[in-house]
Amino acid sequence: MATDTKSTPDFDASKVAEIHQHLHSHLPSESALRVKALETLLVDKGLVNPKTIDAWIEAYTEEIGPKRGAMVVAKAWCDPEYKARLMRDAPAAIDELGFLGKATAHLKVVENTDEVHNLVVCTLCSCYPFSILGIAPPWYKAAAYRSRAVRDPRGVLSEFGIDLDVDIEVHVWDSTAELRYLVLPQRPAGTEDMSEEELAGLVSRNSMIGTDRDLGENIEDDG
Amino acid sequence: MDGIHDLGGKEGYGPIEVDDDDSPFHEDWEGREWGIAQCARTPGITIDWWRHCRELIMPEDYLGRPYFDSWAQTDFSTYIEAGWISEEEISAGKSLSKDTDYGEPAVAMTLKQVLQEDQDHAVRFDAEIETPPVFAVGQAVIASRHGNSGHTRLPQYVRGRQGTVHAYNGAHVFPDLSALGQEVHQHCYSVMFEASELWPEAQWSQDKVFLDLWESYLAEA
Fold it and tell me: Is A19 in Cβ contact with B77 (below 8 Å)?
């Protein structure tokens, strides 16, 4: 295969299926070596700069992650007007905090109540609101969660330690389009005197996906 | 495509491997692949074509290899398909092309530049279109009985099932055509399905499943 025909994609699915078969036998079996092979070749061709890869890793390790989502949640708990804006137009509301970015331009916030528990999944791939939650946890991208969240949500929740009362409806959001979902968990009781920053410390990543519910368990007992 | 990727409702995948480790990357190579995927794109590629190339990974590799490994495999395939790299070059571990017309080599970006690019990646997929939406919020709809053999975002588990339009999302880029390089906008709705409509064991359940579905996936109930 010559490389002098580089161009835009042909969108040829049969060709790609054939490429995958070839790669199955010809790429190294270890994931680390496969990624190394990809990086080496793309860098040699000048298509990718390794320092830019470093910068993306740093961005999603140090700067962009679930702490951002937790700040959005805590602000919504403390400021009813912010919460109203968040529920009406989430991209604009997270942009106020500088968190609008990758995969959040069509963000929707779904609110947990005493009657409803929300759970987010992507059954077809693993869509996730990167710029506010960072990199998705491994279980979110695994076949067990993707297959079961829509069919056995209560069984899934129980494996995360949540025994949901039968009267509470589960609403599962399957991210089939470019919309992304953020669960707004309930503010735990007994947190009236806590600052927004302290409250953000209670908000787990899983609570914003829906695999955690009672954040009162995260309050440190200094009694 | 009725592929291995369409996992909703499939059974036999076992319990969730709940993991309290919040670190974004568990192995160095996962971070490298994340970074590669952020800065490398063939011209003319669409997100739906990339997704389709991932769906086309052989089922044993799709299910059997780690998540970011499948991203690397997808990147390999999209670059090869568009002629930017070859399998011979992968084996050689270097460029074999005499063609020097790859433009200027990619420059090194700083953390600040990358964070700015992340903000710039807040891409909207909606647009105004002339035709009004066919369905109204609250209306009963039935999802199409069939997908198509290319890329589609109509999962098997709702096909032929009745739901209710929960919200109108605007006209969004239609993925089935976007995976063929065509940008066509179509009305998109959030549709609510009762769990009892979808699953035999959920007969008494009040739970609900919401999907964002395009107009041509739906018919009036």
Answer: yes
